[in-house]
Amino acid sequence: MIETVEDLLCFEEGYRADPYYCSEGYPTIGIGTRIGPKGAALVNYQMHWSRDIAKAHLREEVKAISDKIDGYPWFRQCNGPRRAVLVSMAYQMGVSGLLGFKNTLQLIGAGDYAAAGRGMRQSRWYKQTPARAERHARVMESGTFDAYNAGGRQ
Predict the structure, then answer these.
(1) Which helix (H) or strand (E) holds 91?
(2) Alpha-carbon distance 7 to 105, whole Å?
(3) Residue 153 pLDDT greater than 60, yes or no
(4) Going by C-beta distance under 8 Å and a sequence separation of 6 or more, which residues neighbour residue 61?
């Protein structure tokens, strides 16, 4: 059951105790935490993260992202599920990547969540991670986690 941004990110990112390459080729560990430059050899990362360590790190990253975007009116006006999607997008592509969605963020600021969802579907990000981006667009449109929870999952 998805109820928080941490739940959403655990679902989307999964968990791995040992270093691996993310879909973009960056060394990663835990719950989608990038630990090195693109293409760096995994043998350089001799670590093992328990689920508790991964979740603690995730909480810190979510807090840092939220602190960075909390001052924007488009974020502050959103309810919990919509905020979770925006934090998830920033977690996946960085805050600067999220801020690149200028038109979509403007539509969110205007309260036009249906158009914001359409804007999300027209992005390069959507083409790269279509299943995740589709779930996020549906949450943005509905303002609920139904795209993840029973009855809303496709």
Answers:
(1) helix 80-99
(2) 23
(3) no
(4) 33, 91
Average of pLDDT values for 106-129? 97
Q: Which distant-in-sequence residues (6+ apart) come within 8 Å of 42 by Cβ?
A: 19, 20, 21, 27
- Bridge partners of 33, per DSSP, are 29
* pLDDT tens for each residue of 32-62: 999 999 999 999 999 999 999 999 999 999 9
CB neighbour list of residue 86: distance below 8 Å, 6 or more residues apart? 69, 75, 78, 98, 108
Domains of the chain: 5-14+50-142 (1.10.530.40)
What does the DSSP 8-state code read for residue 3?
A: -
Q: What is the dihedral of CA 14, 20, 26, 32, to 10 degrees?
A: 20
Which 3 state secondary structure label does DSSP give 130?
helix
